[in-house]
Amino acid sequence: MGKTCAALLCLLLIACGGDNGASSTASSDGVQPQQTYKWKLVTSWPKNFPGLGLAPEHFVQMVERMSNGRLKIKVYGAGQLVPAFEVFDAVSQGTAEMGHSGSYYWKGKLPASPFFGTVPFGLNAQEMNAWLHYGGGLELWRELYAPFNLVPFAAGNTGVQMAGWFNREINSIEDIKGLKMRIPGLGGEVFTRAGGIAVNLPGGELYTSMQTGVIDATEWVGPYNDLALGFYQVAKYYYYPGWHEPGPTLELIVNKQALESLPQDLQAIVETAARAVNQDMLDEYTARNNAALVELVNKHGVQVKRLPDDVLAEFKRLSGEVIDELAAKDPLTQRIADSMRAFAEQSKAYHGISEEAYYNARGK
Ligand code: CA
Q1: Under a CB-based contact definition with an 8 Å cutoff, are residues 252 and 147 in contact?
Q2: Other CB atoms within 10 A of residue 271 CB
């Protein structure tokens, strides 16, 4: 193509498309010019952290592509714009239009918030998604966040986690007594009631804390993330199942006024991209956990063990206590707990003859 020809093509493209072209054509058609938006998204994760931190990156890429660049969102890692645990307040106040985090971090402000992340012996990923999107969960979540000017969306799930890394074998509930473990949230409360000492530390401090004996045990996520952090070098036993985090949902929170300022199509794009990234994270963890577990066992000699039945039974009993006490805090928390429990009962009945029966029939 000659230079003149290329220049003509360029002029033609400018005349037919692009923001300027669209605007000038638009006014004669009676169509409003298409405004572009530049937003900020703050997160509780280090920038580009595997899994958790990549989800918001995937989200903004999807939104930009689907909106043809009309909604551009910049992702800030923890501490880049606001600290990890100030995401909720920053989006509530409009410092950023969006945030990606975990609802259980806001337990101090909102006792009911862990129900939308994960509760011990609660719903798994498949059930969480079903409760949120078809069982009334999302409406309750929005009711809980409404006074804070926030609209939440489910935006990621790790699937069932592992119980964690231990330096000694757990043969009975007696072995929990005096054990110092990094285990946050409601699971930590259960662990403390069982006689252990629960502490919460950021992910980046766990390896050194295990190495120096500051803690005796730690949970993090599952094989994919735990392999990356190198825990197999500082602990011998890798226990399952993750009774304390059976299907944690990550959240996308959007400032209400900011969301409502978007035209309908961009609002739909935000909702659709959140739903897509919610499933995408689960897909990624499911695939990568399998491969990482093989590597941990075959290459690094990790001993994978199941928590004994009596330990799990005691954790389950104590979880019931913790959740009952939490639910009694206020009427909305009670409604949320009741809704989740009713859903869990139904799910258990059907999953007993579908998912569970199938796993049993398939065998190992
Ligand atoms: Ca965890």
Answers
A1: no
A2: 15
CB 74 within 8 A of CB 38: yes
Ligand 1 centroid, distance to 245 Cα (angstroms): 6
**Mean pLDDT (the chain, rounded):** 91
State the burial class of residue 97 (Cβ atoms within 10 Å of its Cβ: 0-12, 13-18, 19+). buried
* pTM attached to this predicted model: 0.87
Q: How many residues does the chain have?
A: 364
Domains, the chain: 35-157+247-286 (3.40.190.170)
Give the whole-number percent of the chain exceeding pLDDT 90.
Answer: 84
CA distances to 39, 64, 253 from 266, in Å: 13, 10, 16
* 108 phi, psi to nearest 5 deg: -65, -35
Ligand 1 centroid vs 203 CA: distance in angstroms? 9
Q: Residue 30: what pLDDT? A: 55
Give the whole-angstrom CA distance, residue 316 versus residue 310.
10
- How far CA 28 is from CA of 16, 23, 25, 32, 263, in Å, comes to 14, 9, 6, 10, 20
Q: Quick check: 4 pLDDT over 70?
A: no
Output the CA 303–ligand 1 centroid distance in Å: 19
- 5-63 pLDDT, tens digit per residue, is 444 443 334 333 333 333 333 445 555 668 999 999 999 988 988 888 999 999 999 99
14, with CB counted inside 10 A (0-12, 13-18, 19+), is exposed
Strand (E) or helix (H) holding 198: strand 197-199
CA of 166 to the centre of ligand 1 (A): 14
| pLDDT tens digits along 171-225 | 999 999 999 999 988 999 999 999 999 998 877 789 999 999 999 999 999 999 9
What is the rounded distance in angstroms from the CA atom of residue 139 to the CA atom of residue 320? 24
Give the residue carrying structure tokens 């009427």. Answer: 331
DSSP state of 136: S
